[in-house]
Amino acid sequence: MAYKLILKFNGEVVSDYTLENVETTIGRKSDNTIHIDNMAVSGHHARVVLVGNKAIFEDMGSTNGSVINGRQVTKHVLRHGDQIIMGKHELIFVDTSMGELPSRQQEPAAEGDMEKTMVLSAQGRMSAFGSAEPVSNKPSLPLASVQILSGPQAGKTIDLTASITSIGKGDGCKIVVKGLTIGKQAAVITRRPTGYHITHLEGLSRTKVNNDSISDEPRVLKDGDIITLGDMKMEFFLKTV
Question: With 0-12 CB in 10 A as exposed, 13-18 as middle and 19+ as buried, what is 173?
Fold first, then answer.
């Protein structure tokens, strides 16, 4: 099993972390595995512990608490696609063997920091947590699709209805691209309030948009953009109602 946490701030991807160690710590202090420099996050806010093939999230007694899939938790067995909220920061748990992230569902909650931490009021928490509302609940964003232009799937159209659509040679990827240099999860297209973004994740073959190689920083997709990965080309387009 290979697990990752994708860190976002205000809906934008900041970085991603592979959970290689038995314990991954999250917090405001710089000695954490995942360092989040924000006053709404405690010095040692939480940790993820690997036990067998399970990844277990534990809040470490933080001031403002941790919210997973809309519910405040102290301990939670993480599942593919779980959304962890800490202030205005968001962590998405990814099982790389599962491919495309599922729609998020709310789950019931399971049952000493000396530094000053900004305590959010109830209204402040609602504002912070509300900023990470899944874009699928925002009907104003037009539906987009990609049409395969080359290879055995040429002519096929794939609707980008999920919050994250994965591209790569992994069996769980929504858009499958074969090749020795293609990553199992080479890239992702994310659906956000600001539009559709594409990010390269892994693999020797770089993902390109209009013949420009993209990095691990999100790039906004525009109507008519041509995405290339390996031998596959596809066109991104917005659908009209």
Answer: buried
